[in-house]
Write a structure and sequence with these properties.
520 residues, alpha/beta, Aminopeptidase, Aminopeptidase i, Domain 2, nine-stranded mixed sheet, five-stranded mixed sheet, 12 helices, 23 strands, binds 2-acetamido-2-deoxy-beta-D-glucopyranose, binds zinc ion
Length: 520
């Protein structure tokens, strides 16, 4: 029996047809059965690839779970670890010697906020290339200050610092939750515990309309003085502390020394209850605020994702999915000559120049370890054979601000993954890497769109140019289209989760063959 798959263009709409031929295509008498796969969706989605509505929704819902469990970079890494381990990857430590062999699947973390995972091809030899997808785990966020306690007019407030370039006005009047890591003393040990208080704890109240008549046309807002979330009233805090015999009374040392002096009893009590520890065990912490409303599907046709941190958890999720699927769904890893890798860094929103950021040597050190045992120049040989996808979100055209986009480069929803190009190299994309990704996309039936910023508009950047400058790996910048980037709650569409995952999976499977066919 022979099975053929055809893709036909009918009424400007792609239809997939499978033909089963029996007993043999060359035989004169043969039975043919034609099966038409679901194609109705291309009517909605235009003349491109047509994943089934179920597949699209399933992928999007899994993405929602990923976001809802990942309120901080620490939780992103924890969630990635869980998914990798479920797919047969195991943890190795930077602090130990490695003995990585072909077909091994491993991951390494740094600062609990960056993670690099890789699957070594069955045919890998040091000096062969690396197929890498890079993204970032951090998003603009409010972070609890080292000394956060504030009391004003009966309110207990929490001082916060702005991390990254957030649209801070969007944080007003939101139900905010808390998440991060807390360092705890346990006997003679110091342990880092992840904390996720998954309910509304804080709120930054806006000023009501009646008190801002003179400001209505121009809302003025100061990041230092107007961004002070309320966590409790002084009255309740006092009552609760007495009732619960809280062993945390500010010793009023100047400057404050322990955590009880630095933070309100309300906050310390919350941490103690959540982690089942005493105030004196809390040594220090990094706590981030986030929207308490879970990520959700939206729109009449449930075709949107309304969620916090799409930038860049979308790319992180698709990278994890692409890698784990490419390594488990097929046995293509056996014949793979490359190392398939994802690198999810922290601190992109502040410029990447940190130990866990893309500006660090983290990736280089890992790549070099994987080149040991080859020729003396195995690492140098491998770099030009490799590819790096710098995956980060792109700007969809805005219904009311379409003039912000260059007329011929206006990414739309459901129209595919966006390739980002910039002549001034704010994006690392080149024609050579674009050709590769177009080949991959053709194989995976994933539509693509192009983005270039207007000449009179500033251009954002990504980890792409940093990585490619450091390592010399041919790089492409791409990502899904979204709206409201850097708002507390952003918006994208569901098909991009499916498409981006399919593209990443296909990149791992197809790149070595495409590379071998390229002549420059
Ligand atoms: C460790 O992770 C936290 C949380 O994302 C971040 O604020 C900090 O900058 C990271 N440290 C380093 C050295 O990368
Ligand atoms: C956006 O809204 C403004 C104000 O209503 C209007 O003047 C403008 O024409 C709109 N722009 C577009 C591109 O729709
Ligand atoms: Zn980003």
């Amino acid at each position: 029996m022979f099975f053929h798959k055809y893709v036909l263009n009918y009424c400007n709409c792609i239809i997939k047809v499978s033909v089963i031929t029996w007993p043999d295509p060359s035989c004169a008498c043969q039975l043919k059965i034609y099966v038409s796969l679901p194609w109705q969706f291309c009517l909605l989605q235009g003349p491109t690839s047509s994943p089934s509505a179920d597949a699209v929704k399933t992928a999007a819902k899994e993405f929602l779970r990923f976001i809802n469990r990942s309120p901080s970079p620490f939780h992103v890494v924890e969630e990635c670890k869980a998914r990798l381990m479920a797919a047969g990857f195991s943890e190795i430590k930077e602090t130990e010697a490695w003995n990585v062999k072909p077909k091994d699947k491993c991951f390494v973390t740094r600062n609990q906020s960056a993670i690099v995972a890789f699957a070594v091809g069955g045919q890998y030899r040091p000096g062969n290339g690396f197929s890498i997808i890079g993204a970032h785990t951090d998003s603009p966020v409010l972070k609890v200050k080292p000394v956060s306690t504030q009391e004003k007019h009966g309110y207990v407030q929490v001082g916060v610092e702005c991390y990254g370039g957030g649209m801070w006005h969007s944080w007003l009047d939101r139900d905010l939750k808390l998440a991060g890591r807390v360092f705890i003393r346990k006997g003679s040990m110091i342990e880092s515990h992840l904390l996720h208080v998954d309910r509304p704890i804080l709120r930054v109240p806006n000023i009501c309309i009646h008190f801002q008549r003179e400001m209505t046309s121009k809302f003025e807002f100061n990041k230092e003085t107007h961004l002070l979330p309320v966590i409790a009233t002084v009255l309740s805090q006092k009552q609760e502390s007495t009732e619960n015999h809280m062993q945390c009374e500010a010793a009023s040392t100047e400057p404050p020394q322990d955590q009880c002096d630095k933070h309100s009893p309300a906050l310390i009590q919350l941490l103690c209850n959540e982690l089942a520890v005493e105030p004196t065990q809390i040594l220090d912490f990094e706590l981030l605020l986030s929207d308490a409303v879970p990520a959700t599907l939206g729109g009449v046709y449930e075709e949107f994702v309304f969620a916090p941190r799409l930038d860049n958890l979308h790319s992180c999720f698709c990278a994890i999915e692409g890698l784990t699927r490419a390594c488990s769904e097929t046995d293509s890893l056996d014949s793979e000559p490359h190392v398939r890798m994802i690198a999810l860094f922290d601190n992109e929103e502040t410029g990447s120049q940190t130990a866990a950021g893309a500006g660090s040597k983290l990736l280089e050190l890992i790549l070099k370890r994987l080149c040991t045992g080859g020729s003396r120049t195995a690492f140098e040989e491998s770099m030009p054979k490799s590819i790096m996808v710098s995956a980060d979100m792109a700007h969809a055209v805005h219904p009311n601000y379409s003039e912000k986009h260059e007329g011929k480069h206006r990414p739309e929803f459901h129209k595919g993954v966006v390739i980002k190009i910039n002549a001034n190299q704010r994006y690392a994309t080149t024609a050579a890497t674009t050709v590769v990704i177009r080949e991959v996309a053709r194989k995976a039936e994933v539509p693509l769109q192009d983005f270039v910023v207007k000449n009179d508009s500033p251009c954002g950047s990504t980890i792409g140019p940093i990585m490619s400058a450091n390592l010399g790996i041919p790089t492409i910048d791409l990502g899904a289209a979204q709206l409201s980037m850097h708002s507390i709650r952003e918006m994208c569409e569901t098909t991009s989760v499916y498409h981006t995952t399919a593209l990443f999976k296909a990149l791992f499977e197809e790149y070595p063959r495409i590379m071998a066919s390229m002549k420059m």
